[in-house]
Write a structure and sequence with these properties.
This protein has a single domain, classed as MFS general substrate transporter like domains (Growth Hormone, Chain: A, Up-down Bundle), CATH 1.20.1250. The chain contains 18 helices and no strands. Helix 1 runs parallel beside helix 7. The chain is globular.
Length: 434
């Protein structure tokens, strides 16, 4: 008697949905915590500066010091992750940055303030570029934009959750136990990162082959799709990455984008306060609105970019939208309504470009060279996060007006959009850079 067997074909859509829902929610939560620890200084500022007698220049310098540390360890961090694996690397850096963030409660001198912000940047440097590289080990290029957008929306969710949460902590716990509200803010938002850092060791795997929640057939299909992806066979060495003009083009465009992003992230609460809203709780609630809208815009733009395969125009138009919103912030003056409209337009445009932007390095790089390039692009690009709060802080101290700083940020974003469109044909560039 012969027993016939049949192989049931694997539903790829269901398989990738399974992988997405297994990986992305955890990484999403981790990024929410990381981004919150990075930018909660913008809410602490509302009490911290008056309590300690600091100027906007001191705040802007301290906010920006994060990115000097961030710059130094991103390339080495991604290379280390390739050697030791994502699970141990991500767990280690999360625990370290959570402890440093909580230690910000002790920042009573400018030296300690700058030092802790610099150290926080060092600790967090390996996370974002590491996760972007980690996605290339699971998803082929045509699926990666949507996944990165889902992950990247953690920035917006950090704004939605972090604003009201930070405002509530500072409103409720000010002078409780002899601590100021801004001190409780750092403690209560830093320690959860330490706890979840240990959780990484349980939920994260280093590769497709290590997981126990996929069948052998599913693993084989995922691996085959990656092997057949339109990725380059040549694995660049670090020296070749540093000599590649396309990498440096992405570094420059990323720098301009980061300048715009952190013009919003580090100054949004201050813009709302300048319209006459004094209570940190109400400032926090209002600050959630631009981020909530930006999630919808970002996911729609990235889904359309993935569907059409077009990257350049999607990125450029997002830059132009962000520039329009930042110029609107300068024009809105002390109107709460128009400031909120402008902040929403700026945040939506700035957030929409980022996930599409991060699909591009994998289109002409692979392997350790790709990991190094992502680290280089992220680190040099994020130097915009140092210059943005630093320059706007100086401008506010000098002119007692944030408008010139927002005009500058708008001009930089518009220039980035023009550069993206102008690079229509670059010899050797990947299709989506052309």
């Amino acid at each position: 008697m012969t027993v016939s067997t049949s192989i049931v074909p694997i539903d790829e859509e269901r398989l990738y949905s399974k992988v997405t829902w297994r990986l992305v929610p955890f990484l999403f939560v981790f990024y929410v915590l990381g981004y919150l620890d990075r930018v909660n200084i913008s809410f602490a500022k509302l009490q911290m500066l008056s309590d300690l007698g600091w100027s906007d220049r001191v705040y802007g310098t301290g906010a920006g010091m994060f990115f000097l540390g961030y710059f130094m360890l991103q390339v080495p961090g991604n290379i280390i992750m390739c050697k030791v694996g994502a699970r141990r690397w991500i767990a280690t850096i999360m625990i370290i940055w959570g402890l440093i963030s909580a230690s910000m409660m002790f920042a009573h001198t400018t030296v300690l303030f700058y030092t802790l912000r610099f150290a926080l940047g060092l600790a967090e440097a390996g996370f974002f570029p590491g996760i972007v590289f980690y996605f290339t080990l699971w998803f082929p290029s045509q699926r990666r934009g949507k996944v990165i957008a889902m992950f990247f929306s953690a920035m917006a969710v950090a704004g939605i959750i972090g604003g009201p949460l930070s405002g509530w902590i500072m409103h409720t716990f000010d002078n409780v136990g002899g601590l100021k509200g801004w001190q409780w803010l750092f403690v209560m938002e830093g320690l959860p990162t330490v706890i979840l850092g240990g959780f990484v060791l349980v939920v994260l795997n280093d590769s497709i082959q290590e997981v126990g929640w996929l069948t052998n057939e599913e693993k084989a299909l995922l691996t085959s799709n990656l092997a057949n992806d339109s990725r380059p066979n040549h694995h660049y060495k670090l020296g070749e990455v540093l000599a590649d003009g396309k990498v440096w083009l992405l570094c420059g465009v990323g720098f301009m984008g980061a300048f715009g992003i952190y013009s919003v992230n580090f100054w949004l609460p201050q813009v709302i306060e300048d319209t006459g809203i004094a209570d940190p709780l109400y400032i926090g609630l209002l600050s959630a609105i631009p981020y909530a809208v930006s999630i919808i815009v970002m996911l729609a733009v990235c889904a359309n970019s993935d569907r059409t395969g077009e990257r350049r125009w999607h990125i450029a138009l997002s830059y132009f939208t962000g520039a329009l919103g930042l110029a609107g912030c300068a024009l809105a003056g002390h109107s709460t309504l128009w400031s909120m409209v402008a902040l929403t337009v700026a945040t939506s445009g700035i957030m929409a470009y980022s996930p599409i932007f991060w699909t591009m390095p994998a289109e002409f790089l692979s392997g350790v060279g790709l990991a190094a390039a992502i680290g280089l692009i992220s680190s040099t690009g994020n130097l915009g996060g140092f210059f943005s709060p630093y320059i706007i802080g100086i401008i506010r101290d000098t002119t007692h007006n944030a408008a010139p700083g927002f005009y500058l940020s708008a001009a930089i974003l518009a220039m980035a959009g023009i550069i993206v469109l102008a690079r229509k044909r670059v010899s050797g560039a990947s299709p989506n850079l052309t």
